[in-house]
Structures are given as structure tokens and as C-alpha cells.
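Blinded run. Sample ID left blank on purpose so nobody reads anything into the name before looking at the predicted structure. Input follows.
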Amino acid sequence: MPEARPRSQTAARLCIGVTRWEDVPGEPIEQYWDRVREAGGEPIDLAGPPADVGALDGLMLTGGLDVAPARYGEAPHPKVKRADAARDDFEVALLNDALARDLPVLAICRGHQVLNVALGGGLRQHIDGDGHRADYRTEGYPSRWHTVRLTPESRLRALLDADEIEVNSRHHQAVLASTLAPGLSPVAVSPDGVIEAVESRAHRWVVGVQWHPERLEAEHAGFAGHAHPLFAALVRRARDRLKQGR
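Blinded prediction complete.
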């Protein structure tokens, strides 16, 4: 298991903090660690407080439980699953510290939602139907799939070199245009209007994606080609920042 070490002992490595709280069926934390390593970074396991953001070169927020609706001023919808205010507090504090230091951030699924809420947005608490949720009635909890349209001139569009891609889907909450945080730009949208990716306008590289690029999804040809570049970009931005002495 990756462990945090004092920054002075890790100066030659690119330390990417990866949040972890609970085990999610079908989404082992090792997948996130493996993608970071493949991109040339060293995953640092952030399993709960305390966590020293000053020892990190980048931050990844991962999937998991619903964000507590009270954090964005709403009563819980009947379909809201178990939330954990301690995890919300931990990740929002980590994120705020990372943003203040202008660390590169990749926020995935729940992380994408945490990013939006932390910056003053809200969430649609439940999406009707099964189009976005993983299939938990089938062995292995396979993803569902849909397309997203990428926004022209966005960093994500340039990174993935495509106008439209197919992505996996494993969520029941969502960021919508009506709940988008100030300072975030929507850069990928699903056919039903869910904002599937965002970028911060105030930071060098802060990206949130609603899909799960850490999953190999080998049965879907082409997905890895649009997934690996996200991790490569996170590590590359971390490397650039370290070279600049920041």
C-alpha cells in the first residue's frame, strides 16, 4: 500500500495523493494507483486525516459515497445513499489546500462532484432510470456506457483529440448546468444534459470527470486511449510544477 513520506525524502518522485475512504464494489483502489504508476507518478495513499498536502505534487479525488446534501444546502433525496460527513470534510479540506497551492488535480466520479460542491455548486441528487448507474445486479458490477460531447477549445478536447467519446458510467448523482459552481467550465456533456467534465478557470490544471478512467474496461476498444491521457497529463503537470520549484 502506498504511504505518505516527508517531502524531503520524495523530492525525486512525483507524489500524487489518491484519496480513499471506503471500498466501493467493483472499484478497487488499486486501479487508481496502477494508472498513476503507469503515467510515471508515485501514488500516495490518503486514507484519512491527517494528510500533508505540502508533501504532494498532485491530487486525485476518487469515487465513493454520495456527498452529503447538507453541504450544498439541501435536504436528502430518498434515493441518496449513505453519506459520510467526515469524508466530505477531509476531501474538501484537502482540495482547498491543493487549490491554494495550485497543485494539479484530477477529480473522478464522486471527486468530480466534490470539486463542484467545494467551489460553491450543488448536485442533482438522483438521476431517474439506469442509464448512468453501474449494473449492480450483474456479476462484476459492469459499467453502463454513453457518449459525451467535448467542448471546443477546452483543454480536455485538446488532450483527447476528439469531439465525442464513449465513456463508462457508474453514478446516480450529477452536476447540471443549474448546479455548476462559479469558476468551473463545463467541457463534456452527455446527451441528456449531465455535465460529465469540468475545468477550473482559475488554476493551471484542475479537471473533473464523471466517468471512471482508472478502469481498464478492456472489452470496450478505444476507451483506454481516452483514459490514459488524463493520468499522463496529471503527472506531466506535476512534473512541470516541480521543475518550476513550486
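Unblinding after everyone has recorded impressions. Residues 101 and 246 are 8 Å apart (CA to CA).
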